[in-house]
Amino acid sequence: MAAFWTLLDKLSSDILRVPHTSATLPFDIYTFFVYVLPACLSFYIVAVLVILPGTRALRIALWPFVVLLAYRAAIFVDFSRKNPQQTYLNVNFALAMLCMVMRTLEWALSKGPLRRRIGPAPSALVDALDLMMNVRGVGWNWSKGLRFPPDTRPTSRLWFAIYVLFSALYHSFIRGVFHIAIQAFEPEAFTIVNGGTIFDNTLPPLIRYTRSSIISAFTAFFIYADVQNTYDICAFMGVTILQQNPAQWPPVFDEPWKSTSLHDFWGYRWHQLLRRTFVVLGGWPLMFVFGRVGYVLGTFLASGVLHNVVVAMLNGCVEWWWMLLSFGMMAIGVIIEHAFAQMTGRRVGGWIGRVWMVVWLLIWGNMMVDGHARAGFFASSNTFVTATPAKGIVEHYVTALDRWLRECAS
Questions:
Q1: What is the b/e burial string over 70-104, where b = at least 16 CB atoms within 10 angstroms of the residue's CB?
Q2: What is the dihedral of CA 93, 145, 117, 125, to 10 degrees?
Q3: pLDDT given for residue 318 in this prediction
Q4: I need a surface site. Which of 232, 275, 367, 373 has the fewest CB within 10 A?
């Protein structure tokens, strides 16, 4: 009993303490109660308040505490337990804390209470839980104007759960296949935490960039499968454990390979999970200064900042401007499309629009992927075991492709 009261006294004195930056602590019961839980509770409290009327002043007053608690949790809790190949756990948690700060900032400044349109809960306490997890605002008034992909999945709770379960298994396998394929191009570099570049300077430019573009395309499919797998798991738990309506889990992607412009790709068909965060962080501030151009540029630069956090946490040696430039150029591409539409009266589309989109994505996508590769992203990513049976087959064909490209260069 004495030990319990000693622990309780230590917890109460450490809740708001900010330790030295070198004093990272492994994730355990103590760090959960002292660092993780206070941050999550502050998030929940603000979510409850933004649903209730007349709480704006209190939300604004609480937001600095949310920032402090999120910062403490992100910086000082080590989920990897000093294992470099598990660093992605720290990265994911830090990103979650960053998104939490940005969402609570929006809630703190919101003038009116947020309202739920689909399946309202009997109390604000339950609604707040849905608001915390609902990053796209499905069924909420603040997501008005956001287009969700058409849904062809089963509508009954049972068959929907079965569908997303099999989808999660399928995409976990696809994720593993593409991860193995990427590593097979550079086993000496992509399997170690120090990372390595996707550009082989021993090859002539045409072959070099063809090879790096293949790696970049594989990476895009890897990220697609990874996001889809995670979303399916969350949808399965939401529908089965929390008894949510399947309508609260619309598709996360809209067949991005069918995009016919950059606007179509980034604005609709690619996942929009962090769209609101990027808009709040960069889109709205720059829009007040530069209008629509500032909105587009600021949103993409905010995405670059977030991805730069990923790269910096994996490997601080990668240039800080690497992600900002590549994502900034995506914004320039979208702005060019808008200018074209204004001058000609026609939107970018058709097969010409698709060629334009693919070329622009590959040019600057190479830069994005190279930044992550040099940070050790491919070594840190966790491959699901379902891909193991395909490992030998995938490595054989990727190695043969790489050998053929090198023979073309000789």
A1: bbbbbbbbbbbeeeeeebbbbbebbbbbbbbbbbb
A2: 30
A3: 74
A4: 367
